[in-house]
# Entry
Amino acid sequence: MSRQELEPGRADAIDGAAAQWLLRRDAGLSAAEQAALQHWLDSDAAHALAWQQMCRADTLLAGLPAARVAALDRSGLAPAAMPAAPSGWLAQFLPLRWLGRLADAAPRAALAACLLLACGLLGYQQLHQPGYSQTFTTARGQYAEQRLPDGSSIELDTATEVQVALYADHREVRLLRGQAMFHVKPEPQRPFHVEAGAARVTVLGTHFSVRNVDGLVNVAVQQGKVAVAAPGRNADAPALLAGDGLTLAADGPAVPASVVPAAVGSWRERRVNFDNATLAEALAEFERYADSGLRVDDAALAQLRLSGSFDVGNPAQFAAALPLALPVRVVGDGRVKRILPR
# Structure
């Protein structure tokens, strides 16, 4: 039986008894006392487990130099008053209620118990706390590339924010806003997850782009394979391969798309690609990088559609191309230019 299966009060009583037996053993057991200890161990599997844990901690402590043990005692690792035993996962390591009663009379036993607790905490932290965490951001018009300790890298587009956390058994990135290109070093035993809005992208090793702008999440794969999950939707969605894309709205269905692998993450070359985008969408994309000066006030014109690839740093070139692709004219000599019907 494990500690989690015991009632807290009974578990505390068993651990307290194990600690008392440890003290008596260190002082020397008579034949009768040795028989009594063996009877106590044989009477319940929980007794034997508590005894094994206590002896293991005592052995670890005994291996420390005497000066180190004294330093631990002076540091307050075995204080005279310990807090009440916590609930949940921490209770599986050691109860704490009885440590205060032992500390004054038996500092070594209390230290042994605290040492076992510390070992358990260390194991928990290694598994559940990231070994590396960092937040990266770019300002409007800025581009950045960040290399991660695992050998992966992230390229951040304009106005982008990502939070990275690397754990012992998995890697997590949250794309809070903007878009980023991910180059993931394969680690089969440590998958790489990207969360963006309602989407969760899981990959073992690949090159892909994720965008999270205005409530829309776009995933495009340049190389490799990724899986995209969203709560309550697409439970059986197939994995995305090179050339596959997916658009996921916060309150709508996932829409698959085909992409040109070589064009995935084209913003890294400071270009924006439009495929049957509305004029309003195209202008909004230019505005993500800088003030383009282009304005459209006519609702009908704003819904005209266009396709093409444009230099994001040259809105004047885009303005010159508009009359060639759409029934519009661009007027204005100053900083603001208005798009009007032809």
